[in-house]
Amino acid sequence: MSRILARFRRPWLAALFLGVVVVESSLLLVLVVGNFASSARYGGFQYGCPTLQATPVSTNSSVRWTRLGCPNGPALVLSRSMFDCATRENSCTLIVPTFTPPDGLLALFTVDHASPCPDDTHPSLGAFMWSGVSELYGWGNQATSLDYCAVTRTSVGTLAGFSVQWSLGEGTTQIPYILPRAPVTIKIARGGSIAFALNVTSRYGFYGNVSFSSDLIPNSAGQVPPSISFSPQSLTLSNGGSNSTTVTVQASSYTTPVSWYVDLNASPVFGLEHYGDFGLPSQTNYATVEIDVT
Question: Alpha helix (H) ranges present in the chain?
């Protein structure tokens, strides 16, 4: 096993004297060398340089985007596997990051060396890094030369160093930060209403505010759906804790008497309180309820 220390140096430290908050950080990259069988199956990777350079991308009142790469090339170079990812697909690289983000680091992305960071202007260019969750390149994402893009709080003066260990393999399955639960089926008569609890539980260290919304899956055009409301509309969820809101379903006398399906969404409120809170992937945390209107 060999170790490569990559320190994020700030070429713009002079801005500190102008009142601009500068975030300093370091990243310890540990190269895990797999055997030939793993390399053939999953591909391979190597680091582009021992010292990463940080370049400011954009800053607003809440967050700062910084690009981390090498002076003369990408920070991470991938090689494809010997086998196809799927039937009639190109070969790919499957790698897994493992890291514990420090306070103040809101999100860490990999991005194509030739592309800009996925900031507010380019929201979907990067691959969000989940610790323990594999990233697939070559199938869908064609990038083989990568840099990092970090999102940090503007209020943080110094970001503690942390390590990222890359390895080849499949990793674990991504699980939502917020786990909602509700009754599978409810029955309601036209002109009536019914209330039930939507319970939410914190996962993977999430804490902060959670807001609720509903997506009613439509039936045929012209049918009248029931109405959905939440009380409270948002609540606070502690790390590892649970809470609940009351969902009220109201069916008017005009509501079409069929089975309706509604997704009850529990979403983290943008609060910059933990890693991932700024750039959560578009994975929805929801519970689906069947509403039988009679």
Answer: 36-42
